Predict the 3D structure of the following.
Amino acid sequence: MKQEKIIQVENLTKKFGDFTAVKGITFDVYRGEIFGFLGANGAGKTTAMKMLIGISNPTSGKAIVAGFDVLTQREMVKKSIGYMSQKFSLYDDLTIKENITFFGGIYSLSRKQIKEKTIQLVQELEMQDVADNLVASLPLGWKQKLSFSVALLHEPKIVFLDEPTGGVDPITRRQFWEMIYTQAYKGTTIFVTTHYMDEAEYCDRVSIMVDGVIEALDTPKKLKEQFKVDSMNDVFLKLARNIE
């Protein structure tokens, strides 16, 4: 395990009035790690992720992401990360090339860089024949792979993926995870939420949130040993659903 900390979270808390959605969570994520951030709906994982990517202020606690404080250096955090939302985040009424150009501009890439990245990305995704087609015409799996690639345009240190494979077929899910492995091997940290417990098995380490707190955090192998079960789905059920 690479020991350079790329995310450091200490007693991170988020309150909405009298309701505490995230209750003082503490954890670290390392460079090049695939970190699974799991929890049932309402567990607080989406709220926690929003604080880490700089779009929601913590009520208290501290988080350092890519060397920047999420409370006082939010814009630097945003420039240092990639983000792919649960809902497809590109523009359906633009072509593939136009989307790449648009987001390259947002990420402050030069025209030369955007041109080079466009050629590279289209070739890697084998989309040469459809590069001038509207994104709306693509199958969902292609859209998700394109969205992931666009999130990497500016070569961020960390990519946050919010349920990136929701609704896609098993073959495309496997291909998507091969892309994740490739990026992690290059040193990019992958912070991913997923509802698919088989995907939790692909992560280097997994945290499981229940009612705003992290109830478990370790490698999939050690978590299965700890809870004396054969799958991450059974670990999740024991924790999140309180099923024995």
